[in-house]
Amino acid sequence: MIQPKVDFASLSLFPATRAQVEESWRRTWPQWGGALSLTEYLAREAKMESMDHAKDGKMIIWVLAPRNDPTTLDFMCSCEAFKRSGLVAYPSSSTSEPNSVHGVTCYAIASVFTPPSKRGRGYASHMMSLLHWVIASRANLPRFPEVWGAPPEQVAGASEGLFSCLYSDVGEDFYRSAGPGGREGGWETRGAVSTIWDVGVEEGDDDGWTWLTQEQLDGLWDRDAGRINKELANMLTSDTSCEVECPAAFVTYLPTNGVCGFHIPRSMYTLDVSMAGRFWGIQSSNDPDTYASWSVDLRPPPPTLIITRLSASEETFPGLIAKIRQAARRSGIGKVEVWKLGEGLKDIAERTGGRTVTRNEHLPQMMWYGPGATENIEWAYNEKFSWC
């Protein structure tokens, strides 16, 4: 039964109660549960909630609900916001000086969902507009629209974000139109590009390479974060991989605190294939700065080995991708995919059999809350590890 629209001024955004959290999971199960039963799906969500990327208040489920009944289970819609550590690099005015790199708070947004009975009323769009007001530093936000009533209350430890990102499966316009003042000024698309290989039949020995288990990868991410920091310090605004011309800043999430690691247990919940050797990554023994990690994407079928994080030079990339294709082949997986390769690596990928395509799903979109406009900000390391 379709319900009548409610005046937006009577609604606000609230952190979900425990009962609302579980209700949000029950609502999303029919669409996102896949082969999992409701019991299995609820168990998976509870397990994910306890992992490093989400625990200790790093994940909050927000609900759009009546101001006079904020704990109701009949809320309009919901979404998840993950608090993350990130970096911002402001370009140097001199090519002889490094960029100014700073650690920042940022957010990843996921699981935006409105039940069928409440769709077509603008609730999800309004929720996303309000979300800026609870996760961002308000210093650079516009005036809060009076027709919306009072701004939502900020929650201690859950605000002051410098940027946020999400992945849209409903096109570019929906989230772009959900700005902090309504209509335009919301999240903008960056780099919805994938490179895909068939795994082929070539085999090679493992000399010079170390296969990595999930536990070994967990020990890699702090070092990886340091590498990202150093590379950002030297990133040029003229880099041909940049989508933004002469960016005012580069931003990125960091893979630490479970951000990259959670992809593995999540994919294992419904995995019908077994990764050969229980390996989820690989590293060059001769060049420790050459490495990759991956998970498995089951939807749409058939399964795809998707690279979550990749670090390689133009010289080491061919060998690295050959080993990743080998890992997929040994595990009975037919394709390998990576998101947003740099221009130099993209050219090499094509010579190794990869084809680069523009995606029409999982569109990476970002919003900047610092001085200036989102259109002038470059999302660096726009790889699958950032997805949630």
Task: Explain what this protein looks like in three dimensions.
With 388 residues, the protein is an alpha+beta fold. The protein has helices spanning 18-32, 38-49, 123-135, 173-176, 214-218, 221-233, 263-268, 317-330, 343-351, and strands spanning 11-15, 59-66, 77-90, 100-113, 163-168, 188-189, 193-198, 209-212, 249-253, 281-284, 291-297, 304-311, 335-339, 355-358, 363-368, 377-379. Strands 1, 2, 3, 4, 5, 6, 9, 15 and 16 form a 9-stranded mixed beta sheet that branches. Strands 8-10-11-12-13-7-14 form a 7-stranded mixed beta sheet. α8 links the parallel β12 and β13 (335-339). The model has no long low-confidence stretch (mean pLDDT 94).
Mean pLDDT: 94
Radius of gyration: 21 Å
Q: Please summarize the sheet with the most strands.
A: 9 strands, mixed
CA(first)-CA(last) distance: 32 Å
Q: Name the overall outline.
A: globular
User: What's the tally of helices?
Assistant: 9
Secondary structure class reads alpha+beta
Number of strand segments: 16
Fraction of residues in helix: 10-25%
Q: Quote the beta fraction.
A: 25-35%
Low-confidence stretches: none
Quaternary structure classification: single chain
Order of helices and strands: EHHEEEHEHEEEHHEHEEEHEHEEE
